[in-house]
Amino acid sequence: MDRHFWNGKKVLITGGYGFLGSRVVNILRNINCNVQLILFRRKDFDLRKESDVERLFKNNKEIDIVIHLAGDVGGIGYNRAYPGEICFNNLMMNTLVMEYSRRYKVKKFVGIGSVCSYPKFSPIPLKEENLWNGYPEETNAPYGLAKKMMLVQGQAYHQQFGFNGIHLLMINLYGPGDNFDPENSHVIAGLVRKFCEAKINEKNSVMLWGTGKASREFLYVEDAAQAIVLAAEKYNSPEPVNIGSGKEITIENLAHMIAKLTDFRGEIIWDTSKPDGQPRRCLDVSRAEREFGFRAKTSLEEGLKRTIDWYFQQIKER
Ligand SMILES: NC(=O)c1ccc[n+]([C@@H]2O[C@H](COP(=O)([O-])OP(=O)(O)OC[C@H]3O[C@@H](n4cnc5c(N)ncnc54)[C@H](OP(=O)(O)O)[C@@H]3O)[C@@H](O)[C@H]2O)c1
Fold it and tell me: Is the pLDDT of residue 317 over 90?
């Protein structure tokens, strides 16, 4: 991290108390320079409301950088249950935060996009230049397309106003402190919860969604935060950039890995009436490395161990 870059900067972080946002905040607090961070909770400023966004920017003049992490996000079950709200909430938050960043002459806007913006069927690894070659997988299209409009808005603002907005296409994240709520957790948190609880309750089987044949790529949350900070420092183009580990694993192999790490020895049953979601996900991560030197450091096994240890600890403390 470049201490000199951040020194004296005023940075607004939306979603700064969230799973990913809190890691970005930790990095910036530990850089050991005079950076001013503006953080808030949604109960104080609801970013879906223009009057709140306007008040936020009026109260905090001369912001240098906005890192926009606030979002309405969840796993496949959540996306299936609330597509309308997810679409509306993300569109409103992104559109308003970017528009007020422009009006208040913010020097740089860092938008957090998603791998869900990619077409359902696209050559693997997913490359940024193929982002527009098809419609996203249906269950996450409202989320993925709302995110994608932030990219379009940023590019349009760049063209008309010279706005410096970057867009990071973030792969699925995981790590300690993830959302383990059965209603809206992502894949890894959902699997860790099921296997840890099965182990503790001495169950002899675990039932999982889908066929297990779909593949995914995962990025440890602290690596993702590093990528955001590096991109904020070094990347200044309206072209989107993939952020991931570049390593693909099937859900079946992932489930076996988590079963082993949690010492669960029972049977894994696949509920094939439930959807798999997108068939394959794996990013070409070369642009991020080339443009701002980002490469993921944490192996999946190491990240899973930390996540599982953390979750077992939470269960014990309950
Ligand atoms: N987790 C992933 O796997 C993943 C993958 C790709 C992209 N992303 C993106 O990364 C970003 C952070 O995700 P996360 O996993 O850290 O999610 P998270 O833990 O749920 O955090 C979301 C944050 O957004 C804030 N927020 C939500 N609705 C808001 C509203 N109406 N007004 C103001 N703030 C609001 C929340 O504020 P409070 O703290 O006040 O509740 C929270 O801090 C999101 O944009 C998400 O789409 C995440």
Answer: no
What's the mean pLDDT in 12-34?
A: 96
CATH 3.40.50.720 fits 3-177+217-246+281-297, yes or no: yes
Query: Token digits for 82?
Result: 């609330």
226 has pLDDT over 90: yes
Eight-class DSSP state of 283: B
- For the four alpha carbons of 42, 46, 48 and 50, in that order, the dihedral sign comes to negative
Does residue 76 register a pLDDT over 90? no
Closest CA to 178 of 91, 51, 74: 74
Per-residue pLDDT, averaged over 277-287, amounts to: 93
Query: How close is the Cα of 264 to the center of ligand 1, in Å?
Result: 31
Token pair for 235: 């990347």
Q: What is the mean pLDDT of residues 178-182?
A: 91
Distance CA 60, CA 239 (A): 28
Nearest ligand 1 atom to the CA of 170 is 6
Residue nearest to atom 11 of ligand 1 (CA): 69
Q: Is 143 a catalytic residue?
A: yes
**Closest among 162, 168, 232, 204 to 6, alpha carbons compared:** 232
User: Would the pLDDT of 110 be above 90?
Assistant: yes
* pLDDT at residue 172, rounded to an integer: 95
The answer to whether 186 and 179 have CB atoms below 8 angstroms apart is: yes
- Please identify which of the residues 78, 100, 118, 143 carries the catalytic annotation: 143
- Cis geometry, peptide bond prior to residue 125 (ω within 30 degrees of 0): yes
The residue ranges of every structural domain in the chain are 3-177+217-246+281-297
pTM for the whole structure: 0.96
Please list, residue by residue across 141-154, b when 16 or more beta carbons sit within 10 angstroms of its beta carbon and e when fewer do: bbbbbbbbbbbebb
